[in-house]
Amino acid sequence: MDIALEKASETNASLKITLTPEDYKSEVDKKLREYGRKVSLKGFRPGHVPASLVQKMYGKSILVDEINNLLGRTVSQYIRENKLQVVGDPVPDREQADAIDWDNQTEFAFSYTLGLASEFDINFSDLPSVTQYNIVAGEKEVNETIANLQQQFHSHTHAEEAAEGDTVYGELKQVDGAFETKTALPLNKVDEDYLPFFVGKKKGETFTFDMEKAFPDEKDRALATGAKKEEAADLTGEFSFTIEDVTRHEPAELNQEFFDKVLGAGAVEDEEQFRARVQEIIQGNYARESAQLLRFDIEKTLLDNTPILLPDEFLKNWLAEVNEGKFTREQIDEQYDDFTKSVKLQLIKNKIAEQADIKVEFEEVMEVTRQMVREQFGFMSGDNEEMNQTIDRIARNYLMDEKNNGQNYTSTYNRVYDDKVIEYAKTQLTIVTQDVSLDEFKAVAENR
After folding, report:
1. Trigger factor ribosome-binding bacterial domain location, by residue (predicted)?
2. What architecture is domain 2-116?
3. Which residue, of 213, 230, 250, 319, has the greatest Cβ tally within 10 A?
4. Is the pLDDT of residue 40 over 80?
């Protein structure tokens, strides 16, 4: 076998492969013997079909299959051993392949066009610092969160007259119809322009109102009348309502009972401790968003400071071919910049992984999948062996699902690989921590 790489430029090359009988004949002969033992042909006992006849019937197809398999292995091995930064797939010279005389040739020449990324290095010491934002929840965020919690853990009181946000309970009758029911009208669902009509109505008072104007949304009308949605659509016109009771949501008081309901019994002992704990929770909730922005900024820093040339024309042609007409050339041109960013970023991450000898073991993929199963099904971590075996079984079945050709394993593997590369990059880059308010963080994130 003769194999040679011819570089036309820094990003374009041809891989030329010449095969002689020594490269493929032994494997082809082996396959022919196997066929000879298995083939069933009228007039011959099984396994006794003459080799010449087997050759005539199956020789060419076996030769073509073996040559194609050999080429695939050879190209992949050459790229791997020579550490070529190949982008896209090697593209065979189809005209050359179509001109082969499979019946008479014994030596075969093939050529593949390769798209290459230019050589580059990652030197973390030359890269600028990256900012990690520590979101500090201020009085505004703490007060808003506590107010929402007070509403969430509200209590009920009874009032003599209706106010905005109340629920009025009583007897509802259609003035010109047969509909009549006991129901609760939620005033927070009443149309904003019509709400003043209800506010101030007193317990024991009877009044009439236009149902469709009060509840223009059919879902809200169904809620107010207790009717099915399809029936509520027909409930229009004047209705009378007699108020029997008015209930009001009162925000929970800032006391020990409220603290225990929110955080658990005895977690805090006074309002000062409660506010401090709420502040911690808010900042913890936004820590994930801060981590996502840090990851984005690390990737952007790597991209902006690592010049890589790509074979643009080769890649555009390759994208058009592999997508089989799904996208026009104009659409490919429009999306090409985003595509090249992802290609370059993956090349950079691969280079970092090579430099740092980052590898992903099967057990790491399994552990990430186990955690996903625990979160999805609400399983707790612990020493329950039976539960752990169940989690393991579900995780393995997910990863090894044959219906999607191992895509679950591949995507999980890639996620673990990506996380390990980013975590390593964090240890090599200069990370500057900056305290910001929530509003300041949102402004920074939006600008990104």
Report:
1. 1-149
2. 2-Layer Sandwich (3.30)
3. 319
4. no
